[in-house]
Design brief:
Chain B: InterPro entries: DUF742. Chain B: Pfam families: DUF742. Chain B: It comes from Isoptericola cucumis. Chain B: This is DUF742 domain-containing protein. Chain A: Residues 465-477 have a biased composition (Polar residues). The complex is a heterodimer. Chain A has helices at 2-29, 32-37, 41-138, 143-169, 184-192, 213-232, 264-275, 292-303, 387-396, 438-450, 470-474, and strands at 182-183, 201-205, 209-211, 240-247, 250-256, 306-311, 317-324, 328-330, 341-342. Chain A contains 11 helices and 9 strands. Chain A folds into 3 domains: 2-128; 178-330, 2-Layer Sandwich (Heat Shock Protein 90); 422-477, no CATH class. The longest helix of chain A has 98 residues, at 41-138. By secondary structure, chain A is an alpha+beta fold. Helix content of chain A is 50%, strand content 9%. Chain A has a 5-stranded mixed sheet. By secondary structure, chain B is an alpha+beta fold. Chain B is built from 5 helices and 4 strands; from the N terminus they run βαβαβααβα. In chain B, helix 3 (72-79) packs across helix 4. Mean pLDDT of chain B is 82; it is low at 1-11. The chains are: A alpha+beta, B alpha+beta. At the A-B interface, helix 3, helix 4, strand 1, helix 5 and helix 6 of A face strand 1, helix 1, helix 2, strand 3 and helix 3 of B.
Chain lengths: 477, 125
């Protein structure tokens, strides 16, 4: 500002100096001839003109100076206001950050609460399922009770799935866990059990491929949500085809529905969601929450699954789930269990928790019924090892009534499990403790009723008793 | 973090399984025949026919277990499943010709006269 003022003053000085210089010049250089001629008005006019010009310049300079002063004042004022605004902005930014932090905290708190509540709901649904299974066990010959139990079980399974959806939308892992690997077709069956229209699901494909225990629950849930979507989006009379196949990089589950598909833009959006590329949390659901595909995306991220939706050749959608190779394993030759089960309360469990399932299919090479050292493949695998049982079983062993295998003792060494239960002796030292397999029992009773004509699969050669769960029954005989 | 099942006592004998029983039977709780009783004897039909590829693991397990003659109740006990559920699965296998019902009426109950004689004999013992 002061610089501007001094430049204005300089302009004025220069203007006056120019005027004075011009006057002097005119006076000095006026030719004497002209002076002599008497034309004295010309220089005067010139001087007057110069003076007028100088005056005008002075006025203009003065006006410019006052303008500059006004501008300077405004400039100062604006600068002050800018500083104020900057300060206010800084405060607001800090407040916003604090607010965001508080909101994130609040959201985390809400999510934790939602997870806790959902898990309670899920646990109660599982409790209902357990009670239904017990009811069937108590009235095990009554098909009507079984029917009721199935309905209750089915309703509770869907209930549990919805609760687990909420947990997944909060980015948490499922609360339920399974220790044992599960064959992929059984994964699809398990998933079908959690949707309303489970009867419309047709599964086919490789039964020899399984998924490792830690991935079972999330994968079952992912497939359940995709199946739910497929059954809801296709006519109720159509079937949903599921194919399981092994591929170089793991395993693939393909789910085809016969619906009408999706518009390209919508399909694009949905693909982003299911692949996990666009995370959808519980706060992003909106007023008409569509949780299923968001849950698929969450678990796809957590597990490293590749999930995609493409147009199906049937006109509907095809959901493809690629299970990476590190999550797959070979399926056990014999299913450890078929369905939820309840031990007979009168039969105390004797063996340790089953850890190794002897393959029952290898006729002639398999193990023989040798006593409780054998894990029981027919029993459902418990979710956790049950040390209490194991400890209790060991001391009581010598007093247990045992049945003798009818095979030669030498044949019994063939296929003992790789991991015998700790504390349980080899069967040979207990000759008077015979134990019968399902097959032997069958052969015996068949021979009893029909004079031996049905005793085809005699123990000597064939050998393999399949799913045997003799340990639990041995005590009350 | 994983919340386990509610109050599951270690000895209460319940074993959960991801595959539910109604999926195994397609939702049916009643067998296709009403002649299956817990004491009905079952025997696998050994005609060299393999189960179709699409057969479920439960069907295979049932057939494996039933290689000898077993009563339905025993089969259920070995598989640790309720007898009513096994009856549904077994009836399907019988319908498909993989399992046969043994005995049927083969072991006729002894006449009431004989039973009375035995009873008298026991009483005289």
């Amino acid at each position: 500002m002061s610089k501007t003022a001094s430049s204005r003053a300089t302009t004025r000085v220069v203007a006056w100096a120019c005027a004075a210089g011009a006057v002097v010049c005119v006076a000095v250089s006026w030719p004497p001839a002209a002076r002599a001629s008497g034309d004295t008005w010309a220089p005067l006019v010139a001087v007057a003109l110069v003076l007028v010009a100088a005056g005008l310049l002075t006025v203009a300079a003065a006006r410019a100076t006052s303008d500059a002063r006004t501008l300077g004042a405004r400039h100062d004022e604006l600068a002050a206001r800018l500083r104020e605004a900057e300060a206010a902005l800084g405060e607001a930014t800090a407040a916003l950050a604090a607010e965001q932090e508080a909101r994130a905290d609040q959201r985390a708190t809400v999510e934790t609460a939602v997870v806790a509540l959902s898990r309670k709901v899920q646990a109660s649904a599982h409790r209902i399922q357990e009670e239904a299974a017990r009811m069937v066990q108590r009235h095990s010959a009554d098909p009507d009770v079984l029917q009721t139990s199935m309905r209750i079980d089915h309703a509770a399974a869907q209930h549990a799935r919805q609760a687990q959806n909420l947990v997944a939308l909060c980015g948490r892992r499922p609360g339920q866990t399974w220790d044992e690997p599960l064959a992929l077709p059984d994964v699809v069956n398990a998933a079908a059990g959690r949707i309303t229209a489970f009867q419309r699901v047709d599964v086919s494909g490789d039964p020899g491929l399984a998924v490792v225990g830690r991935a079972v629950e999330p994968l079952v849930h992912v497939v359940a949500e995709l199946l739910a979507n497929a059954t809801q989006c296709s006519p109720p009379s159509t079937r949903v085809l599921v194919v399981v196949r092994q591929v170089q990089r793991g395993a693939v589950i393909e789910i085809d529905d016969g619906g009408v598909g999706l518009a390209p833009s919508e399909l694009e959006r949905v693909r982003e969601v299911v692949s996990g590329a666009r995370p959808v949390g519980i706060a992003d659901l909106g007023e008409v929450p569509q949780t299923g595909l968001a849950v698929v995306g969450t678990y796809a991220r957590l597990l490293g699954l590749r999930v995609d939706l493409v147009e199906s050749v049937y006109g509907g959608l095809r959901a493809v789930v690629l299970v990476p190779g590190q999550l797959t394993t070979a399926a056990a030759a014999a299913p450890g269990a078929l369905a939820p089960s309840v031990d007979d309360p009168r039969a105390e469990p004797v063996s340790a928790a089953p850890s190794v399932v002897p393959p029952p299919t290898g006729a002639g090479t398999g193990p023989v019924a040798t006593g409780p050292a054998r894990p029981a493949p027919g029993r459902a695998a418990p979710a956790e090892p049950r040390p209490g049982q194991q400890a209790a079983s060991t001391p009581s062993l010598p007093t247990l009534p045992q049945r003798r295998s009818r095979r030669a003792p030498g044949a019994t060494t063939a296929g003992t499990p790789a991991v015998p239960a700790p504390g349980i002796a080899r069967p040979e030292p207990r000759p008077p403790a015979p134990q019968q397999t399902a097959e032997e029992a069958g052969a015996w009773i068949g021979a009893f009723f029909s004079g031996g004509d049905c005793a085809e699969p005699q123990p000597d050669h064939d050998s393999q008793e399949p799913s045997v769960a003799t340990d639990g029954n041995s005590e009350d005989r | 973090m994983p919340v386990q099942k509610p109050v599951q006592k270690p000895t209460d004998g319940y074993h959960d399984h991801p595959v539910r029983s109604y999926v195994l039977t397609g939702g049916r709780a009643h067998p296709t025949r009403n002649t299956l009783r817990p004491e009905t004897l079952l025997c696998a039909v050994d005609d060299g026919r393999e189960l179709p590829l699409g057969a479920g693991r439960h069907e295979r397990a049932l057939l494996e277990t039933c290689r000898g003659t077993l009563s339905l109740a025993e089969l259920a006990a070995y598989l640790r499943l309720p007898a009513s559920l096994v009856a549904v699965l077994v009836s399907d296998l019988i319908d498909a010709g993989y399992l046969a019902v043994r005995s049927g009426g083969a072991h006729d109950l002894p006449g009431i006269d004989l039973l009375e004689e035995v009873l008298d004999g026991l009483r005289n013992f």
